[in-house]
Amino acid sequence: MSVLVVDDFQTVREMMKGCLRQLGYQDITLACDGAEAVELIKSKQFDLILCDWHMPKVLGIDVLRAVRKSPAGKGIPFILATSESEQGCVLQAVDAGVSNYIIKPFTVDTLKAKIESAFKKAKAMASLPG
Asked: Closest by alpha carbon to 30, among 99, 96, 20?
């Protein structure tokens, strides 16, 4: 399973990568901002995307929108990771098609639960017509 981790802070990317490895994920690609993520998504198919919201160049919400515009991207579990817990941001992410939302900092157990939920939601969305 191929995972894309997007965050503008290297320490956060490495922490997320470590959490994912603890959960058994091995094929992990790191991107330092949203622009790099969008380019990577054009060239490789990912099975899960874990993306920060606030980044230079391209925001995580815009990466999400770009993924959801692609027919192949509609079913990819996409988790926005952020320190934002404001309801308006959460609603904006839901409207854009986010699979799940995780507040930083988080534990491995929280990440595992969010990933499992995101895959269930993606599976349910894939079975809908249209």
From this structure: 20
pTM metric for this prediction: 0.93
Superfamily of domain 2-126: Response regulator (3.40.50.2300)
The mean pLDDT of 7-17, rounded to a whole number, is: 95
- 33-68 burial, b at 16+ Cβ within 10 Å, e below that, comes to bbbbbbebbeeeebebbbbbbebeebbbbbbbebbb
Question: DSSP character for 7?
Answer: -
Q: Quick one: pLDDT at residue 124?
A: 74
C-beta separation of 60 from 53 below 8 A: yes
In contact, 102 and 80? CB cutoff 8 Å: yes
Q: pLDDT by residue (tens digit) across 89-98?
A: 888 898 999 9
**Confidence band for 130, pLDDT divided at 50, 70 and 90:** low
Domain boundaries, given as residue ranges, for the chain:
2-126
Q: What is the DSSP letter of 98?
A: -
Extract the tokens encoding 23: 């959960």
Q: Which two tokens stand for residue 106?
A: 């988080």
